[in-house]
């Protein structure tokens, strides 16, 4: 119970402290007094304004009703209503503050009553504890008197009977129990005495705290009275100051009113002038839309005429520019023909799924819309431009590409040597451009179809014989793709007739007379060619393929004989071993490919710099192309590039090599024609009379064997070769 009383006293002390902290802050009282002072000041101003308004109304007469005082009167009325609203708001705030102060005073009175009740309850608890203490002392005194009587009984009953002994034992046990009870009562008495002492100490402390709180309350009450008196004085002083300020402002208002009257008399002439000017401006504004529309109409007509003149001039300039561009290209082609320059075409393959996704697969090649011979490469953040003879974008078809080269192809019928070779990194589309697919053939098959078409057109006056040979250079070894033993190595030698031309002894030639014959030859050559899968290309060519087409013609009327040769070369692609993942035999193939392409670069450099010695014999590839690169052939290089960002380094190298090749001058081309009799068939190493049956199906070469053995080819190439061969 004492602990409960202590807790209640602590709560009451906290409540008194909170109320005292609320009453100690005079901010609310000050705010209330300030609001009262402001309310009084506003009330005084309102009264002054009402008096001024009444005076102004008395002074206003009929002649002044239309003057500017009416506007000032309206402004003063609006200000008066605003002051009245502010006064009402101030009264409401003052009433709220008075109510809050009354509520806090009531709460303080309730706290004092609860404190008195707590003190009365504590006095009653102390009285009850005192009574309990006295009862405990009396019980202890009575218990102290009982043990001696028991001892006396024990001494007197020692000689009695068995019942007496039993009663004696019971008395002894009862005595023991009573002694234990006495001990327990003594212990309880001690504890209660200690509690009483602590309670007395706590009561003394609480009384001291109550006295201190009462003194603090008296002091706070006195301070609050003093502050309220001071605020009352401050309020009176503020009211006096506000009254004085209102008087000064009223005086200033009267002075301003007098000045306004004076200005009104002087502003009437100016007002008449302004009214006249206003009417004039109003008329001008009313007429302004018509003037603006007319001006805009004429300006639109002039601007439209100027734009039309500029468009017509631009169209004329663009027409002249395109005409000059075509004329320049025609003159350039004629100059290239006279000088014997190697023509260079560029073809950009489209982005494919093998290029992947993300930034590495982004398109890094752009084209010039006005010049189809220029392309731009974005390499390492810089744009590099290249000018070739013709550039084919990714959307260009096989037909469009062949239309640009068919003039060279047909010239071999007239007795010229022509060479078309595809150059570029692996996976750039060289084989697709040269060979194509069955549904969309490339330059090789289209060239032979064109030759057959031209031959049929001249059949009335000319007799032509077209023969085809196919070879590849694999690991610096020349192999016959149409021979009985494709693995047999061939050598390149000079013609014994002293002409300086090169030929390959033992190279098989097939005479072809139709498109079906061409398809059989191509199928047989594809089976024997070495291809392999790498990280960069699923069907990567591992050798340089050469298709040699020889066209021999005889003019029956004049006896003129012509011999033209068309070399169609599909070079193996240059590759970086680290990216292609070549190992073992694939690595050896890549080394030989890169070595032969490097030798081709050395030959181009020597020709471009007009050196006395050109290293044709450094590679079987350059030695075999010596006739095409030494000045007696029309030569075209088709450079294939990839537009993917990850291939920009290889694309840059290919385009730079193409520019160097384009600057090489081979000299004028001579025509191979002479008056002679038609050669007998024994001079041709060719098998005539191809059967008309269709070739058997032949799949792609095995990806696991780049150099197929004769035993491996026996099941595929032998049957195809039997269809190509005939008796006698």
UniProtKB/TrEMBL annotation:
<dbReference type="InterPro" id="IPR027417">
    <property type="entry name" value="P-loop_NTPase"/>
</dbReference>
<comment type="similarity">
    <text>Belongs to the TRAFAC class myosin-kinesin ATPase superfamily. Kinesin family.</text>
</comment>
<feature type="region of interest" description="Disordered">
    <location>
        <begin position="677"/>
        <end position="728"/>
    </location>
</feature>
<dbReference type="GO" id="GO:0005871">
    <property type="term" value="C:kinesin complex"/>
</dbReference>
<dbReference type="GO" id="GO:0005813">
    <property type="term" value="C:centrosome"/>
</dbReference>
<keyword id="KW-0597">Phosphoprotein</keyword>
<keyword id="KW-0965">Cell junction</keyword>
<dbReference type="GO" id="GO:0005524">
    <property type="term" value="F:ATP binding"/>
</dbReference>
<feature type="compositionally biased region" description="Low complexity">
    <location>
        <begin position="689"/>
        <end position="711"/>
    </location>
</feature>
<feature type="binding site">
    <location>
        <begin position="424"/>
        <end position="431"/>
    </location>
    <ligand>
        <name>ATP</name>
    </ligand>
</feature>
<dbReference type="GO" id="GO:0008017">
    <property type="term" value="F:microtubule binding"/>
</dbReference>
<keyword id="KW-0472">Membrane</keyword>
<dbReference type="GO" id="GO:0003777">
    <property type="term" value="F:microtubule motor activity"/>
</dbReference>
<keyword id="KW-0505">Motor protein</keyword>
<dbReference type="GO" id="GO:0005874">
    <property type="term" value="C:microtubule"/>
</dbReference>
<comment type="function">
    <text>Minus-end microtubule-dependent motor protein. Involved in apically targeted transport. Required for zonula adherens maintenance.</text>
</comment>
<protein>
    <recommendedName>
        <fullName>Kinesin-like protein</fullName>
    </recommendedName>
</protein>
<dbReference type="InterPro" id="IPR027640">
    <property type="entry name" value="Kinesin-like_fam"/>
</dbReference>
<dbReference type="Pfam" id="PF00225">
    <property type="entry name" value="Kinesin"/>
</dbReference>
<keyword id="KW-0547">Nucleotide-binding</keyword>
<feature type="coiled-coil region">
    <location>
        <begin position="189"/>
        <end position="241"/>
    </location>
</feature>
<keyword id="KW-0493">Microtubule</keyword>
<keyword id="KW-0067">ATP-binding</keyword>
<dbReference type="InterPro" id="IPR036961">
    <property type="entry name" value="Kinesin_motor_dom_sf"/>
</dbReference>
<feature type="compositionally biased region" description="Basic residues">
    <location>
        <begin position="719"/>
        <end position="728"/>
    </location>
</feature>
<dbReference type="InterPro" id="IPR001752">
    <property type="entry name" value="Kinesin_motor_dom"/>
</dbReference>
<dbReference type="GO" id="GO:0007018">
    <property type="term" value="P:microtubule-based movement"/>
</dbReference>
<keyword id="KW-0206">Cytoskeleton</keyword>
<feature type="domain" description="Kinesin motor">
    <location>
        <begin position="341"/>
        <end position="664"/>
    </location>
</feature>
<dbReference type="InterPro" id="IPR019821">
    <property type="entry name" value="Kinesin_motor_CS"/>
</dbReference>
<feature type="coiled-coil region">
    <location>
        <begin position="2"/>
        <end position="146"/>
    </location>
</feature>
<keyword id="KW-0175">Coiled coil</keyword>
<keyword id="KW-0963">Cytoplasm</keyword>
<dbReference type="GO" id="GO:0005912">
    <property type="term" value="C:adherens junction"/>
</dbReference>
<keyword id="KW-0968">Cytoplasmic vesicle</keyword>
<dbReference type="GO" id="GO:0030659">
    <property type="term" value="C:cytoplasmic vesicle membrane"/>
</dbReference>
């Amino acid at each position: 119970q004492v602990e409960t009383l202590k807790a209640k006293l602590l709560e009451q002390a906290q409540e008194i402290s909170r109320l005292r902290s609320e009453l100690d802050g005079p901010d609310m009282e000050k705010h209330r007094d300030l609001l009262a002072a402001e309310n009084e000041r506003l009330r005084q101003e309102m009264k002054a304004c009402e008096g001024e308004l009444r005076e102004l109304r008395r002074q206003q007469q009929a002649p002044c009703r239309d003057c500017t005082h009416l506007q000032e009167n309206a402004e003063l009325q609006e200000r008066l209503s605003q002051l009245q609203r502010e006064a009402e708001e101030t009264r409401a705030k003052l009433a709220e503050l008075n109510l809050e102060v009354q509520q806090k005073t009531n709460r303080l009175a309730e706290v004092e009553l609860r404190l008195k009740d707590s003190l009365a309850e504590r006095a009653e608890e102390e009285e009850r504890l005192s009574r309990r203490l006295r009862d405990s002392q009396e019980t202890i005194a009575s218990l102290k008197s009982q043990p001696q009587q028991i001892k006396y009984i024990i001494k007197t009953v020692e000689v009695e009977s068995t019942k007496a002994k039993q009663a004696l034992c019971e008395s002894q046990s009862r005595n023991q129990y009573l002694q234990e009870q006495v001990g327990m009562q003594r212990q309880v008495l001690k504890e209660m005495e200690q509690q009483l002492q602590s309670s007395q100490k706590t009561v003394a402390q609480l009384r001291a705290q109550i006295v201190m709180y009462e003194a603090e309350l008296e002091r706070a009450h006195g301070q609050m009275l003093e502050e309220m008196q001071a605020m009352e004085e401050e309020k009176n002083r503020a009211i006096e100051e506000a009254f004085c300020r209102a008087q000064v402002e009223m005086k200033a208002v009267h002075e301003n009113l007098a000045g306004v009257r004076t200005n009104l008399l002087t502003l009437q002439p100016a007002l008449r002038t302004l009214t006249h000017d206003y009417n004039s401006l109003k008329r001008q504004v009313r007429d302004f839309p018509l003037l603006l529309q007319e001006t805009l109409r004429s300006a639109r007509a002039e601007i439209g005429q100027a734009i039309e003149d500029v468009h017509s001039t631009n169209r004329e300039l663009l027409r002249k520019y395109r005409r000059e561009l075509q004329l320049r290209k025609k003159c350039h082609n004629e100059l290239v023909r006279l000088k014997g320059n190697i023509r260079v075409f560029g073809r950009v393959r489209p982005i494919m799924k093998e290029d992947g996704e993300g930034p590495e697969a982004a398109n890094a090649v752009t084209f010039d819309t006005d010049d189809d011979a220029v392309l731009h490469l974005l390499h390492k953040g810089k744009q590099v431009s290249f000018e070739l003879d013709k550039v084919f974008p990714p959307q260009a078809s096989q037909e469009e590409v062949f239309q640009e080269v068919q003039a060279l192809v047909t010239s071999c019928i007239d007795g010229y040597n022509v060479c078309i070779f595809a150059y570029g990194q692996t996976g750039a589309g060289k084989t697709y451009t040269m060979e194509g697919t069955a549904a969309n053939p490339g330059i090789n098959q289209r060239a032979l179809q064109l030759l057959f078409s031209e031959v049929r057109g001249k059949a009335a006056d000319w007799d032509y014989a077209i023969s085809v040979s196919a070879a590849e250079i694999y690991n610096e070894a020349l192999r016959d793709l149409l021979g009985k033993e494709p693995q047999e190595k061939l050598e390149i030698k000079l013609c014994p007739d002293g002409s300086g031309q090169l030929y390959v002894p033992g190279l098989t030639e097939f005479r072809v007379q139709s498109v079906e014959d061409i398809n059989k030859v191509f199928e047989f050559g594809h089976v024997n060619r070495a291809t392999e899968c790498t990280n960069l290309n699923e069907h990567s060519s591992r050798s340089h393929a050469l298709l040699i087409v020889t066209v021999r013609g005889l003019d029956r009327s004049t006896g003129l004989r012509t011999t033209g040769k068309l070399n169609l070369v599909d070079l193996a692609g240059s590759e970086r071993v680290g990216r292609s993942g070549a190992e073992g035999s694939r690595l050896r193939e890549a080394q030989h490919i890169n070595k032969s392409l490097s030798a081709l670069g050395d030959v181009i450099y020597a020709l471009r710099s007009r050196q006395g010695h050109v290293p044709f014999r450094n590679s079987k590839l350059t030695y075999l192309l010596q006739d095409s690169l030494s000045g007696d052939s029309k030569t075209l290089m088709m450079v294939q590039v990839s537009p993917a960002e990850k291939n920009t380094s290889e694309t840059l190298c290919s385009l730079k090599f193409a520019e160097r090749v384009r600057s090489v001058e081979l000299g004028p081309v001579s025509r191979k024609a002479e008056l002679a009799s038609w050669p007998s068939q024994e001079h041709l190493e060719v098998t005539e009379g191809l059967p008309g049956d269709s070739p058997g199906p032949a799949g792609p070469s095995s990806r696991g064997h780049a150099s197929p053995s004769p035993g491996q080819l026996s099941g595929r190439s032998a049957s195809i070769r039997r269809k190509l061969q005939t008796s006698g």
